[in-house]
Structures are given as C-alpha cells and as structure tokens.
Design brief:
Layout: H1 2-37, H2 40-49, H3 52-65, H4 84-113, H5 118-145, H6 150-170, H7 176-182, H8 188-212, H9 215-231, H10 237-246, E1 250-251, E2 258-261, H11 276-283, E3 291-301, E4 308-318, E5 328-333, E6 336-339, E7 347-356, H12 357-363, E8 367-388, E9 393-396, E10 400-406, E11 412-420, E12 426-433, E13 443-446, E14 464-472, E15 492-515
C-alpha cells in the first residue's frame, strides 16, 4: 500500500518534482561557475535568490502531504482502507526520493566536479543530508499535516518566522550569556540539542496527527516543541563546555599556562595581542549602555611557541568583602585570541571586560579583589602550506583547493579556498618573498568552531565549505610601505599556518587590590 500511495502522489506531482529538480540543478550550476570564475553577476543572483531551492523543496513537501489532507473530516481517504502507518511511510518515502535523495546526489556531484575524491565528498554530503532530513524535511512535513491548504501553510510559516525573530530580538539579544554561547566555538552543543528535540518532536506530532487527527492538540504540541528548541539557547555554559572538554583530544591543561595581572604594561592604548579578526567581530555583540569597558593588562606565560590561545568565555566576579555586599557576577569578558610568537618569552595582552555600570559607578575608585574565570582552548600548529601569491591554484591538505589573485584595486592579494567538509576555523596567512626571505606581517583569521560534524545548522548551497581571506601589500596612497609589495608578488608566496584545537580547559586569575577606574577605556 505504501508503494501504491507513492505512485499516486508521483502521478499527481511529477511536474512539480521536475520543476524543483530544475531549480536545484540550475542553482548548482551557477554555484559551480561562480566558484570557478568569480562571476559577480552570478554572485549577486545567488545572494538574492539563494534560499529558492529550499523554498521550492518546502513547497513540494507541503504539496505531497496535502494530497491526503489530515485536518477536517471531508477527505475521501478517510473511508478508504488505509493504515496510518502506510500513509505516513508513503509521504516520507516521497520526501526521501524527491527531495533529500537528489540533494545528496547533487552535493556529491558538486564535490566531484571541483576535483575532490569520492571518499572525501561522501562523508560531508551524507552529514548534510542527515541534518536537512531532521532540521528541514521533518519540520516542513509537520507544517503540512497541521494545515489543510497552501495558504494556511504559508500563514503558519510566516507566524513561525515572526515568532522566532521576535524571540531573538526581544529575549535572546538581551542575554549576554546566551549570545556568547551562540557565537562561541561550542555553539554546536545547543544546536545538537535543538536537532534532537526537533527530530523527536516532529516524529511525535506526525504520528499523533496521522493516528488521532487531533489537529488542535497537535498544533499546541508543535508550539511546545518550538518553544523548547528556543529555550535551549539558554543552555548553561558549564554544561555545553563540559561536553566539549569530554571530546577534547587532550583532557585538561596539556602544559602549565599561567595568566597574571601586569600593571607595568600601563594603560591601554593599542590592541596589542588582541586579534581584530577574531575578537572585534564578536565583541560588539556584548556592548550596551548598561556596561562599562575596562582593559586589564596581563601576561600569559607558558604558552607553547606558535600556539594560539582562545578565551571562549571569561566570567568576571568580585570576591572582596569591602564592597558592602556587591560581590558576585560583574560581567563577561570580550572574546580574546592570543598567539605566541617565536620571539616572545610571554604574551602581553589587554583583555577587555564588560562591567555592570550600576556596580562600577559605586566601586570604581575602591581597591577591590577581582576574579576572572576562564574557559580556554589551546590550538596548536597542525600544518604549514604555501601557494604562489599570483595565479596560484593548489590542493592543500587541510585548507582544500585554494586560488590566489590580486584584487581590482591592486592593493590586496585575495585567497579563496574551497573544501569538501569543514575548513579550518583558525589559520594565519602572510606574504613571503621567496628570494630574499622578507615577509609581511602575519594576519590571524580565527572564528573558532569545534563542531565534530559537517553541515550542522547549515542551510548553505551544498556540502562544500568556502572561505576567502585578503592580504594587503600596499595602500593606494602609498602611506605605508610593506616588505613585500606589488613588485615582488611574482616571486612571492602565501604561507598558511593552520591551527587545530588540542585541549579545552579552565583556569582563573585573581587580581588583588585593583582599582577599576584606573583601567576604564578612554
């Protein structure tokens, strides 16, 4: 009976299926051309209409469910000898063969077309297919079984989108703890919880609706599942980080690393030791009028040469009894990336801390005891690879297929990398002149992501990861002279240093008798 229902749906919807496949093939071809030639026109088209393939798939999924509408009591299938299990199995089969299966095949073909081996492509494509099945197909099928017309389905989707958007704007954006978890390298942990809840919740709603046809109750159940998924954004940091520590290649601190307060560095003037690419991108998320920023000078000792230390989270507390009961949580620190250079005995940094304004105004001129609890990740050099600075095209072991070119202003070298699966989330790049050995300042690009899965919470075009970095070699006005400039690019190379997480661990810093007002940002 399952196959009979499937054939019936296919006869009614095969034209729509062909249209959806045509959309997927067209967008896959445009993505391939853009990856190969940097076509600006196609880039604008994909930016504007990128979600269209998934929207077309959603339309098809709702349409197949509506061939046998669940809400109401006027449908002819109710008097036919159909088992609920057969009906739901037929709809799932249709979804697998017309939506998820073709997406998997398309991802594999896209990877093969870019020159990646079948073994390198199948894993990430399968991972993305599983995510889309649970995080896209199941929820859309639920939308279909809870509505009896396409108009109702569209209204339901709009209500869902507005509800999630309002939650993020009115609730999530006001919670620094939730925001920092969301933008940290361990954000995949609450994402995994959401995926599990969504999968189980969708299964329960589908079964309840097909077995009992209690539409009102099923809609309430669906709303509860969505609410539960949203609440996972407030998963305690300690729980999420504990999962990451359990998966860490090294348990605990691999070698003694010490953080100490060093007032001899003086007041903050220049973001020395703080990586703009890694910190500024996220630090603005935690700025508001209710906090005051102070820059605490410190040194990090024991950091291995060539290693990168990422402060995934830092919690600031008062532990002094003279604050008249003002002890407890003071705020959070900004994201912080520190790299140990070969010539440094230790790494001097200024860590920006966001202190609650109401408490700061009362104690800023007092000498207090401050405690900063750090959740840290140590990343070690995993590989070092090079490719020509101009016209380079090479398959790198960890960075994938990378190309280099000079931008239109002739001031930057653009590097574009494409890889099947996850690209390294932390790397540095520099321009080196191969004949003289001169090199430009190294740039660090880190957006930590410790997820062990690919395609996780990713509704992108395929199972390939893309990343671009730029390396400046001159300014148009000639105001800055670089060791490697435009004239030497033909004999120069781009050197990548790729870092991978080695250990996740915690430590703390206690600062006795610090006057917060002395370190306020000017």
């Amino acid at each position: 009976m399952v196959w009979h229902i499937f054939k019936k749906d296919w006869k009614l919807l095969w034209r729509y299926v062909m249209l959806v496949w045509a959309v997927q093939v067209s967008f896959g071809w445009m993505q391939f051309v853009m990856d190969s030639s940097e076509n600006r026109t196609l880039e604008r088209i994909l930016d504007a209409f990128g979600p269209l393939p998934l929207l077309a798939c959603a339309f098809l999924l709702v349409a197949v469910v509506h061939q046998d509408v669940i809400p109401g009591d006027q449908q002819d299938w109710l008097i036919r000898p159909l088992k609920s299990w057969d009906l739901v199995a037929a709809k799932l089969l249709f979804a697998l063969l017309t939506v998820n299966g073709p997406i998997l095949v398309g991802d594999v073909l896209q990877g093969l077309a870019h020159g990646f081996s079948l073994s390198a492509v199948v894993g990430p494509a399968s991972s993305r297919a599983i995510f889309l099945l649970i995080g896209f197909t199941f929820p859309v099928l639920v939308l279909g079984v809870l509505t009896k017309s396409f108009v109702e389905a569209v209204i339901g989707a709009i209500v869902y989108a507005l509800g999630v958007s309002l939650f993020q704007q009115l609730v999530l954006s006001r919670s620094p703890n939730a925001l920092q978890l969301r933008w940290s390298g361990v954000s995949w942990v609450p994402g995994l919880v959401v995926l599990v809840i969504a999968g189980l919740g969708a299964g329960v709603v589908l079964w309840q609706q097909y077995r009992q046809r209690t539409t009102l109750f099923s809609r309430g159940l669906a709303v509860g599942v969505v609410a539960l998924c949203l609440l996972t954004q407030f998963l305690p940091w300690q729980a999420a980080y504990a999962v990451q520590q359990w998966l860490s290649p090294s348990r605990g601190m691999p070698s003694p690393i010490y953080i100490r307060f060093d007032p001899s560095l003086g007041e903050f003037h220049d973001p020395s030791g703080i990586n703009p690419e890694g910190s500024d991108r996220r630090s603005h998320l935690f700025n508001d009028e209710a906090t005051v920023t102070i820059h605490v000078p410190m040194r990090i000792e024991g950091l291995p040469e060539g290693a990168v230390l990422n402060a995934d989270r830092s919690e600031v507390r008062l532990i002094d009894n003279t604050t008249k009961g003002e002890g407890g949580e003071l705020g959070l620190g900004d994201p912080l990336l520190v790299r140990k250079k070969d010539s440094d005995n230790d790494a001097p940094v200024y860590h920006s801390l966001k202190i609650r304004r109401d408490v700061y105004d009362r104690i800023k001129n007092q000498a207090v005891w401050l405690e900063i609890n750090y959740s840290l990740t140590l990343m070690r050099l995993a590989d070092s690879e090079t490719l020509p600075a101009i016209g380079g095209h090479r398959h790198l072991a960890l960075a994938g297929s990378c190309t280099t070119m000079v931008d239109e202003t002739e001031t930057l070298v653009e590097v574009h990398c494409l890889k099947s699966g996850n690209l390294p989330s932390c790397l540095s790049a520099s321009l080196e002149h191969t004949l003289s050995g001169r090199k430009n300042p190294e740039a660090l690009f880190c957006e930590p992501d410790y997820s062990p899965f690919f395609g996780f919470a990713d509704y992108g075009p395929d199972a390939l990861s893309r990343r671009g970095v730029t390396l400046r070699f001159r300014y148009a006005d000639g105001s800055v002279q670089y060791p490697v400039s435009g004239q030497q690019l033909g004999d120069s190379q781009v050197r990548f240093r790729i870092y991978s997480p080695q250990a996740h661990f915690k430590t703390n810093l206690v600062i006795p008798q610090i006057t917060l007002g002395n370190w306020q940002a000017q």
